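Quick illustration, no need to memorize.
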Amino acid sequence: MPWYVLHTKPQNEKKVADRLTAMGITAYCPTRTEVKQWSDRKKKVEVPLLPSMILVQISEKERSLVFQAPGAVRYMFWLGKPAEVTDEEVEALQAVQNHKNNQNLTVETIQPGTKIDLTSMGFKAQNGTVQYVSGNNYWVVLEGLGYVIKMEI
């Protein structure tokens, strides 16, 4: 079964994923741990990797069932068809989410126009071109998918 991208109401990603799971639908909301600071304390919180989006594995015939869960808005479409995510891409998201040890990472200067090989991130034979760099963020164009993704150094 394919994975579809489902848009949710803002800050409802984990709730919608939990509701869909309770309904018997396979839903995945990739998260990352972030330290939030208030005036009196710091706290580690889980925030979604894909804001206002979750991944749903469901058959084509049953796609409308997700709208029974409060907070589900619509599916994301690409070229007139519902956008599908491959199992390899979902596994790559899970690997990023589960990767706790980042000691072996190196930082290099990134310039617009630089080609980046994304196969190490789990994308199958996918190259990206850096379009724009701003501070610690850079935008990479995935030519094969027609997407621009924002990455943080």
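The first strand starts at residue 3 and ends at 8.
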